[in-house]
Design brief:
- By secondary structure, the protein is an alpha/beta fold.
- It has a single domain, classed as Thiamin diphosphate (ThDP)-binding fold, Pyr/PP domains (Rossmann fold), CATH 3.40.50.970.
- 44% of the residues lie in helices and 12% in strands.
- It has 11 helices and 7 strands.
- A 5-stranded parallel beta sheet has the order 1-2-3-7-6, with helices on both faces.
- α3 packs across α10.
- The chain is globular.
Length: 277
């Protein structure tokens, strides 16, 4: 996809996620919106994986450690043909539905149960180490939140990844500076995150995490460092909808009717602007 089409895709998926959360009155709105560009970059330009090949030995693995942002991932998987869009729209967060509030292996395209923060990077280390041992070309990508960096298990995994020289592992930190109870600096300060990963022996890159072109460029950049790579993706929580941007209370807030309609107008205006480019 070209740059303009990728930007349109990001807005379209934000809109579908906004609608899904509003219609079913459940979801992690701010977290979904902040990482939309990251998922589009991965699934439309980076991951060597399709609905038919994602279980193959050499297919890339994606692990969403910040599993509470599952709604945007559902929408990406539906758009890419892993799951049925109509089924998702009808059954998300309903009784006996596989489309629950965190990733589950009941969903095609999701290889691990996640959502208990701090576990995803350890899973990624295991997958990447196994690929090394199998002489596989598989790459592993793990998306974490910045609030998640307070978990000690993250740093155990970071140390192991460096120890084993897992240059086939890329961690991405959705660095929006907010978590459920406030700013990351006020709850448990982790900044500067990049310095910490450097000290643990990682190749570290910072990027505007809401710039799809920059994300694609960096995620496709070969890692010849012999070290695991972490991308600190600086994002805006609630990106794309003014009422939700940079507000901790939108971590798990559901829009009112007025907020929902205003959000739709904003997203539609963004799409119209891109269509006129």
């Amino acid at each position: 996809m070209n740059s303009l089409d990728l930007k349109k895709k990001v807005v379209q998926l934000r809109k579908r996620t906004w609608q899904l959360i509003y219609n079913h009155k459940n979801g992690h709105t701010g977290s979904d919106l902040s990482c939309a560009d990251i998922l589009v970059a991965l699934y439309y330009e980076v991951l060597k994986q399709t609905p038919d090949t994602f279980e193959d030995k050499d297919a890339d693995t994606y692990i969403q450690s910040k599993g509470h942002a599952v709604e945007i991932w559902y929408e990406v998987l539906a758009d890419k043909g892993y799951i049925d869009q109509d089924d998702l729209d009808k059954r998300y967060s309903t009784f006996n539905s596989p489309y629950i509030g965190h990733p589950t292996t009941d969903i095609k395209g999701m290889e691990f149960h996640t959502g208990s923060l701090g576990h995803g990077l350890g899973l990624g280390v295991g997958v990447a180490l196994a690929a090394k041992m199998d002489h596989s070309s598989k790459r592993t990508f793990v998306l974490m939140g910045d609030g998640e960096q307070a978990e000690g298990s993250v740093w155990e995994a970071a140390m192991a990844a460096s120890n084993y020289g897992l240059d086939n592992l890329t961690a991405i930190v959705d660095h929006n500076d907010l978590q459920i109870t406030g700013t990351t600096d006020s709850v448990m300060r982790s900044n500067p995150i990049s310095n910490k990963y450097q000290a643990f022996g990682w190749d570290t890159i910072e990027v505007n995490g809401n710039d799809i072109d920059a994300l694609v460029n960096i995620l496709n950049k070969p890692n010849n460092s012999g070290r695991p790579r972490v991308i600190i993706a600086n994002t805006v929580k609630g990106k794309g909808i003014t009422v939700a941007e940079n507000r901790a209370d939108w971590h798990h807030k559901i829009p009112s009717e007025a907020e929902y309609q205003e959000g739709l107008r904003e997203l539609d205006a963004q799409l119209e602007g891109l269509n006129n480019d």
